């Protein structure tokens, strides 16, 4: 392994395949023998327009995006979508409300931003239980402009596996599980995702929006905050995030080579099962998310005795395992198992957990022997 020596379980920006990074690195110097760096090519050149077209096509192929949806590349991260969604869909919806399912930290942030543009209805929340599950027993006000969901809660480690139809536009933040499993795009009206968790490097945001939803935006908006601008200009109204789109294209090509989303989903299930099984068997660690809602992308766990928290993090780090510290507000551990993380990294983590546990047992046995003597 020349490019990488670490097992990267970081939550984002994510691990990318080595082959993708090597190709990206060589294109920074000389892009496909053009004598130019990918960093200095005109975004209006035919060559780069082809990159955009190819990336859009790969998104369409890999997710089976129907013809009546636009595939757009924006900037500003998923966080900008927290306000763009209500700005485009709520602000001029009359007296309608933005309906939100409160499943965690990022859902909360989306709710906060929506309040700038209209009234918000929180249809259900798992806050009182530390967001360790996905509420599914809720109904919508008849005057909801849309329902907003977060399909995978990156910090809390929960994931939605079933999407119900409420007869209103369904908007979903899929930042941390897009391309990790098969979805039916037609179940949704707007999907958005920051690229840096499964699609590519930071800097680009993917938006998949139903064309009929665009026609419902009837009022003028600042150009950069208006979905119609991106649809009308093929995501090239201004300079797009050239490098991020390019590397995303490479990464999606890699995904296609792996057999596409259905093949990677099988791998992802295998990886998650292996780790959850180890956590459930452990005397030291326990999983924090509720059984049926456990995320396959971000596995959150804690230790029963807090003294092991730094102990295990240091032990893992010494063995080349990085990125397993839980989010600052949650603590404990989080292992992110994004598409490019190989199965052997998960096997290595599981072994490391078992070694650590064995070491503790031996220490305890030693101590009780001393006490006994
Ligand atoms: C990381 C993340 C975000 C924030 O993304 P940015 O691109 O950093 O703005 C939003 N939602 C979810 C689910 C995330 O995982």
TrEMBL record:
**Needed cofactors:** pyridoxal 5'-phosphate
Domain Aminotransferase class V, by residue range, is 8-340
Record PROSITE patterns? AA_TRANSFER_CLASS_5 (PS00595)
Q: How is the cofactor bound?
A: Binds 1 pyridoxal phosphate per subunit.
- Keyword terms, alphabetized: Amino-acid biosynthesis, Aminotransferase, Cytoplasm, Pyridoxal phosphate, Pyridoxine biosynthesis, Serine biosynthesis, Transferase
Q: What Gene3D superfamilies would the database entry show?
A: Aspartate Aminotransferase, domain 1, Type I PLP-dependent aspartate aminotransferase-like (Major domain)
Residues that hold pyridoxal 5'-phosphate according to the record: 78-79, 106, 154, 173, 196, 238-239
Residue list for modification N6-(pyridoxal phosphate)lysine: 197
Q: Where does L-glutamate bind?
A: 44
Q: Which InterPro entries match?
A: Aminotrans_V_dom (IPR000192), Aminotrans_V_PyrdxlP_BS (IPR020578), Pser_aminoTfrase (IPR022278), PyrdxlP-dep_Trfase (IPR015424), PyrdxlP-dep_Trfase_major (IPR015421), PyrdxlP-dep_Trfase_small (IPR015422)
Q: How does it assemble?
A: Homodimer.
Name-wise, this protein is: Phosphoserine aminotransferase
Q: Which organism is it from?
A: Pedobacter planticolens
**What gene codes for this chain?**
serC
């Amino acid at each position: 392994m020349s490019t990488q020596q670490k097992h990267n379980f970081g939550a984002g920006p994510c691990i990318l395949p080595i082959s993708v990074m090597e190709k990206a690195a060589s294109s920074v110097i000389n892009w496909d023998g053009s004598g130019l760096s990918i960093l200095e090519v005109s975004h209006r050149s035919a060559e780069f327009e082809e990159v955009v077209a190819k990336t859009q096509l790969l998104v369409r192929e890999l997710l089976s995006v129907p013809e009546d949806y636009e595939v757009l590349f924006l900037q500003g991260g998923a966080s900008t979508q927290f306000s763009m969604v209500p700005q485009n869909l709520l602000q001029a919806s009359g007296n309608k409300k933005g309906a939100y399912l409160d499943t965690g930290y990022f859902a909360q942030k989306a709710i906060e931003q929506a309040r700038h543009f209209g009234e918000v209805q929180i249809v259900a929340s798992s806050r009182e239980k530390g967001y360790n599950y996905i509420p599914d027993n809720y109904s919508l006000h008849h005057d909801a402009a849309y329902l907003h969901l977060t399909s995978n809660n990156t910090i809390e480690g929960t994931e939605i596996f079933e999407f119900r139809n409420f007869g209103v536009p369904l908007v979903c933040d899929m930042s941390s599980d897009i391309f990790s499993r098969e979805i039916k795009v037609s179940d949704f009206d707007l999907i958005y995702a920051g690229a840096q968790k499964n699609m590519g490097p930071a800097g680009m945001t993917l938006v998949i929006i139903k064309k009929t939803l665009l026609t419902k935006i009837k009022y003028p908006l600042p150009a950069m905050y208006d979905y119609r601008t991106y649809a009308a200009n093929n995501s090239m109204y201004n300079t797009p995030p050239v490098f991020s789109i390019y590397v995303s294209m490479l990464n999606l090509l890699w995904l296609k080579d792996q057999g596409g989303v259905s093949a990677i989903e099988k791998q992802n299930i295998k990886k998650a099962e292996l780790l959850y099984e180890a956590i459930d068997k452990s005397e030291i660690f326990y999983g924090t998310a509720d059984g049926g809602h456990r995320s396959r992308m971000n596995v959150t766990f804690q230790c029963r005795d807090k003294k092991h928290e730094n102990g295990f993090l240091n032990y893992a780090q010494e063995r080349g395992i990085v990125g397993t510290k839980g989010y600052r507000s949650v603590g404990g551990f989080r292992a992110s198992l994004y598409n490019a993380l190989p199965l052997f990294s998960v096997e290595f983590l599981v072994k490391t957990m078992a070694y650590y546990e064995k070491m503790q047992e031996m220490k305890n046995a030693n101590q009780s022997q001393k006490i006994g003597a």
